[in-house]
Design goal:
- This protein has about 210 residues and is mainly alpha-helical.
- About 75% of the residues lie in helices and about 0% in strands.
- The protein contains 10 helices and no strands.
- Helix 5 packs across helix 6, helix 6 runs antiparallel to helix 8 and helix 8 runs antiparallel to helix 9.
- The radius of gyration is 20 Å and the shape is globular.
C-alpha cells in the first residue's frame, strides 16, 4: 500500500471513529433516564422544531445584536461542511476530481472568516474572558484545515499533509470544542421538540 493509500484508509477510519464517538456521547445524554410526560400535549412538537431551526435562530439575542458575526458564522460553518465534502470526494473518488471552481471561493472565504473570528475573539476583552484555550485551538485547527483544502485545489502534492491534518481533526472533534458543530443541531432539535410539545414556542400552540 502506498503512503497516499494508507492515509486515505486512516482518514476513513478516523471519520468512523468520530461518528461512533459522537453517537456514544449522544446516547450518554439519556443516562438520566427517559422523560415521562403525564399531561396531554398543549402544542405541536413538529412546529416547535421548525421554529427552533427557523425564526428561533434569528430571534436569539446573540444573533439579533450581532448580525455580521452571525452571517460570518454561517459562512464559516458552511465552508467547514464544504471542506469535508471536498475531503471525502478526494478520498473516495480520487479519479473523479471535484469541481474546483465551486470549492475554491467557499474554502478561501471560510478560512478568511475563521481567521477574522479568531482575531475578534483575541482582540475583544469580554470575548477573551469567556474563552478557554480550546476555543482558540479549535478555531485555528479548522482554519488550517480549510486553508490546506484550498491550497490542495491548486497543489495536489499537498494531499498527504491535508489527509494527516484531517485524521487528527476527526480524532479531535469528539474530544474538543468542535463537537458543538454536531451538538448544535441535536440541542436545537431537543429544544424545539420539548417546548413545541408544551406549546411554549411561537406557532406551536394548539390554541393558535
Amino acid at each position: 500500500m502506498t503512503l497516499i493509500g494508507l492515509l486515505r484508509f486512516l482518514t476513513i477510519g478516523a471519520a468512523a471513529f468520530c461518528v461512533a464517538a459522537l453517537t456514544f456521547l449522544t446516547f450518554r445524554t439519556f443516562a438520566f433516564g427517559r422523560r415521562e410526560y403525564f399531561s396531554a400535549p398543549r402544542g405541536y412538537a413538529g412546529n416547535g422544531i421548525i421554529y427552533a431551526f427557523g425564526r428561533g435562530m434569528l430571534e436569539k439575542e446573540s444573533v439579533a445584536l450581532h448580525r455580521p458575526t452571525f452571517a460570518g458564522g454561517i459562512l464559516y460553518h458552511g465552508a467547514i461542511f464544504a471542506g469535508l465534502i471536498y475531503l471525502f470526494w478526494t478520498v473516495l473518488l480520487p479519479k473523479t476530481g471535484p469541481p474546483l471552481w465551486a470549492f475554491r471561493p467557499v474554502l478561501l472565504a471560510g478560512a478568511a472568516v475563521g481567521l477574522a473570528l479568531f482575531i475578534k475573539r483575541a482582540a475583544k476583552p469580554h470575548l477573551r474572558r469567556l474563552s478557554c484555550p480550546d476555543d482558540f485551538f479549535a478555531n485555528l485547527f479548522v482554519d488550517v484545515f480549510l486553508a490546506l483544502a484550498f491550497l490542495h485545489t491548486y497543489v495536489p502534492a499537498l494531499e498527504p499533509v491535508l489527509l494527516s491534518v484531517s485524521i487528527l481533526l476527526f480524532v479531535y472533534i469528539p474530544l474538543g470544542k468542535i463537537r458543538h458543530c454536531f451538538f448544535f443541531f441535536y440541542t436545537r432539535f431537543v429544544f424545539g421538540l420539548h417546548y413545541g410539545r408544551r406549546g411554549a414556542l411561537p406557532g406551536s400552540s394548539r390554541e393558535a
